[in-house]
Amino acid sequence: MFKKILIPTDGSTLATTAAQAGVEFAKQCQAEVVGAFVAPDYHYPIGVEIIPPSYPTEEEYKASIARTGEAYLDGVRKAAAEAGLKYASVVAYSEQTAQKIVEIAQQEQCDLIFIGSHGRSGLGQLLLGSVTSKVLALCDIPVFVYRMKKT
User: Are strands 143-147 and 4-8 parallel, antiparallel or unpaired?
Assistant: First the structure.
């Protein structure tokens, strides 16, 4: 069936729940797991002549985000290890999160993206935007959308 599954996360409750479900799905397929975290690009402050000393450098920003991303991905890594699955992680930077997720899936030669969704539709989806919807629109490989159960 599937051999390599990309599981993106942003550290939110939904993404964490979806990631755990993704690892369970990967276990059923005996597929490799690639965890991904996409953060915004570094930006210099706009409208100031001198960068404040407390403002992080690009290197400091990327180091901090890498630690944060790996912390978010740690649960995916642990779940994959417990399931006996091969695991790799990617921390990337982009203002276009969905596009970057698709690029990572292609670069890592994944044959499925397993991603969470709140299941919003209509106006709620238009107002809030949806990384999941954008991934679906941009992607030419299968995408499994995990919907959070309403309690």
Answer: unpaired
**CB of 87 closer than 8 Å to CB of 76:** yes
Taken in order of first residue, the domains within the chain and their CATH numbers are 4-147 (3.40.50.620)
- The two most distant CA atoms of the chain are separated, in Å, by 56
The C-alpha atoms of residue 104 and residue 92 are separated, in whole angstroms, by 9
Cβ neighbours of 86 (radius 10 Å)? 13
Q: Give residue 150's pLDDT.
A: 59
Amino acid 127: pLDDT? 40
Q: Report how far residue 13's alpha carbon sits from residue 36's, in angstroms, rounded to the nearest whole number.
A: 16
Please give the Cα distance from 63 to 123 (Å, whole number).
37
Cα(32)–Cα(39) distance, integer angstroms: 23
3-class DSSP assignment, residue 47? coil
Task: Please tell me the predicted confidence (pLDDT) of residue 57.
Answer: 85
